[in-house]
Amino acid sequence: MPQMSTEIKKVDKLSIYIKTFWKIMRGLCKFGLKYDFPIFIGKSVEITHRKHIKCGKNVKFESYSEIHGLARDGLHFGNNVTIGRYTEIRPSSYYGVGNIGSGLKMGDNSSIGPYGFIGCSGKIIIGENVMIGPRVSLFAENHNFSNEDTTIKAQGVSNKGIVIEDDCWIGSGSVIGAGTLVNKDIPKNSVVYDKRNRTIKDR
């Protein structure tokens, strides 16, 4: 378990301990959810179809996140996984209409930042030690639209799945390649991967 910083004052530590206590208490009240103690659940977290969800130790569902477990393969969260505030994980329709989605497998020590959206109708596999930043969306499903003689809605969807390997960082803005030295502003939504800060292309 990570140690709290020595710079934090006692009154701030007390506040953290109290909030953490209530997150543990909320976890104990989520009957039907399979998990290794402890699990931390923030305020107003919505968890449905709990029998399809399995969590390792120290999983954190931050406040206002929505975790929907209706999936063929379920949702599997490894140890020390964090799901950020207002993040939605949705494998299937809220109402069970249409095909049931595949689900999600998330490795140890991985996290999804606030306001994320994980559409795991197709199987999504996230490795270990993966950091997904705020407002990142993953869609493992795409609407078919090649037939111009009928509506897009009537053409169904394609599920290909997504695999994110271990030790990745995924952000929602520009992409900076490994080894790139950044010493000036980078244009929004650009891809930069050399040591001279040259914008190679727009995303």
Rg (CA only): 20 Å
Which structural class matches the secondary elements? mainly beta
Q: How far from one another are the termini?
A: 39 Å
State the helix count.
Answer: 1
Structural overview:
This protein has 203 residues and is mainly beta. The protein contains 1 helix and 22 strands. The strands form 5 sheets. It has a 6-stranded parallel sheet, with no helix packed on it. The chain has a 6-stranded parallel sheet with strand order 2-5-8-11-14-19. The chain starts with 9 loop residues before the first helix and ends with a strand.
Please render the helix and strand layout as text.
Blueprint: H1 10-28, E1 34-35, E2 39-41, E3 46-48, E4 53-55, E5 59-61, E6 66-68, E7 75-77, E8 82-83, E9 88-90, E10 104-106, E11 111-112, E12 117-119, E13 124-126, E14 131-132, E15 137-139, E16 141-143, E17 157-159, E18 162-164, E19 169-170, E20 175-176, E21 190-192, E22 201-202
Parallel strand pairs: 1-4, 2-5, 3-6, 4-7, 5-8, 6-9, 7-10, 8-11, 9-12, 10-13, 11-14, 12-15, 13-18, 14-19, 20-21
Antiparallel strand pairs: 16-17, 21-22
Provide tags for this entry.
203 residues; mainly beta; 22 strands; 29% strand; globular
